[in-house]
Amino acid sequence: SPCRFCLHPGLYEDLMGTHPPGAHSLVAVSVGYFLEDFVDMLCNQKLHQSWELLFHHSVVIVCFGIAVLLHQYVGFALVALLVEINSIFLHLRQILLMANLVHTTCYRLNSIINLGTYVVFRIATLAWMTRWLFLNRENVPPATYAVGTVGMAIMTPMNIILFYRLLRSDFFK
């Protein structure tokens, strides 16, 4: 969380080896969540409906799994978890859609908050992570740098496309 950066300022200087107490456990639990959600989608959804999320989860599981197993890059994974703050509003949007509450003030308010948190916690966070990875490329081992670069190269366009879909669906019908 953003408070972790205030309480553990070493994260600003070292996202590879430094992390606050509990961060490794948080990332490990997140891997478990993404694994469980992945299996649930495989068992309960049609592949053509969930392939993008399955792909997203695969990338996260690999990247976070490396951080958990190596006890390195936990700080970087912690930054990546900021993206999940927006998930609250994405999931609320889905619930409101399923409840057929699209034409309500609640849906409209959630749409605005959803886009705002999307820009701050998804797009800006991914841009910052990509910048950090590029600026620290000489300090990151080549294999890890490759995984991180591929991860960012996959996640960034996926999130931009989803942002466009949300914008089109909720604001430019």
TrEMBL record:
<dbReference type="GO" id="GO:0055091">
    <property type="term" value="P:phospholipid homeostasis"/>
</dbReference>
<dbReference type="InterPro" id="IPR050846">
    <property type="entry name" value="TLCD"/>
</dbReference>
<keyword id="KW-1133">Transmembrane helix</keyword>
<dbReference type="Pfam" id="PF03798">
    <property type="entry name" value="TRAM_LAG1_CLN8"/>
</dbReference>
<dbReference type="InterPro" id="IPR006634">
    <property type="entry name" value="TLC-dom"/>
</dbReference>
<feature type="transmembrane region" description="Helical">
    <location>
        <begin position="112"/>
        <end position="134"/>
    </location>
</feature>
<dbReference type="GO" id="GO:0007009">
    <property type="term" value="P:plasma membrane organization"/>
</dbReference>
<dbReference type="GO" id="GO:0005886">
    <property type="term" value="C:plasma membrane"/>
</dbReference>
<keyword id="KW-0812">Transmembrane</keyword>
<feature type="transmembrane region" description="Helical">
    <location>
        <begin position="51"/>
        <end position="70"/>
    </location>
</feature>
<dbReference type="GO" id="GO:0071709">
    <property type="term" value="P:membrane assembly"/>
</dbReference>
<keyword id="KW-0472">Membrane</keyword>
<dbReference type="GO" id="GO:0097035">
    <property type="term" value="P:regulation of membrane lipid distribution"/>
</dbReference>
<feature type="domain" description="TLC">
    <location>
        <begin position="1"/>
        <end position="173"/>
    </location>
</feature>
<feature type="transmembrane region" description="Helical">
    <location>
        <begin position="146"/>
        <end position="167"/>
    </location>
</feature>
<protein>
    <submittedName>
        <fullName>TLCD2 protein</fullName>
    </submittedName>
</protein>
<feature type="transmembrane region" description="Helical">
    <location>
        <begin position="76"/>
        <end position="92"/>
    </location>
</feature>
